[in-house]
Hints:
It is a single chain. A 5-stranded parallel β-sheet has the order 2-3-1-4-5, sandwiched between helices. Strands 6-7 form a two-stranded antiparallel sheet. It is an alpha/beta fold. The protein has a single domain, classed as Rossmann fold, CATH 3.40.50. It is built from 9 helices and 7 strands. Keywords: Kinase, Transferase.
Amino acid sequence: xxxxxxxxxxxxxxxxxxxxxxxxxxxxxxxxxxxxxxxxxxxxxxxxxxxxxxxxxxxxxxxxxxxxxxxxxxxxxxxxxxxxxxxxxxxxxxxxxxxxxxxxxxxxxxxxxxxxxxxxxxxxxxxxxxxxxxxxxxxxxxxxxxxxxxxxxxxxxxxxxxxxxxxxxxxxxxxxxxxxxxxxxxxxxxxxxxxxxxxxxxxxxxxxxxxxxxxxxxxx
Length: 220
């Protein structure tokens, strides 16, 4: 049986990730594709509640500690994610490990150290990066409500996403899956159509095994 596709939407804060994820879920459901939306961080879990308090500036944590908590939040849901895929259901993630790396490394933590805790997580088949200039994102409603929504930090995060895009594009083993960048400064309908063009080929499911992030060995 074909498994579900694992699709990740990444981007800067206020790039439209949540809006586009919701629109994509509706379109997949309209095409009779079983789909589950998963947001990271998942703020409903015990670890997620600690992250939520930090992001709302209600608590302070060491940069290393919060990075590991973000990773732990993904790990506590990894087995469930794999089972969902194996059941033939497409999983759409609003943020994933790439955000964790970009935001922590932008604060000065070593890039390879930031990547290490997420090694062996399920690897997406497709990562969609919604690219927008920080100054354009600032014009959108609600900007600045959370800790990381500062223009200088968002610029650093954008550069780190570009680094990951370059590395993944050069990955000859297909360990992390495909990566595509979409102009998120367009109106939301145009962005949604660009996303659908890259997602539609995956709507019939995937025959390949689930890969692990930054490892060539598949998940058993």
